[in-house]
Amino acid sequence: MINAAIVGMGWWGQTLVESVSGNSNSNKIRFVAGVARKATEQLEAFTGEHGLAFVHDYEEILADPKIDAVVLATPHSVHADQVVAAAAAGKHVFCEKPFALRKASAERAVAATEKAGVTLGLGYNRRLHPEMTKLREQIGSGELGEILHCEANMTFPNALYLSPDAWRASRDETPCGGLTPMGVHAVDGMIDLCGEIDEVYCQSFRRAVAVDADDTTSMLFRMKAGMSGYLATMTATGGGFSFQVFGSKGFVRLEGMTHIAGAPSEERRKRCFGTCYFKPVKGALQSWEADQVDIVQAVLERFADAVNGTQPFLISTREMIHGAAVTETIVKSAASHQIEKVV
Question: Looking at the predicted structure, is the pLDDT value of residue 24 above 90?
Answer without folding.
Answer: no
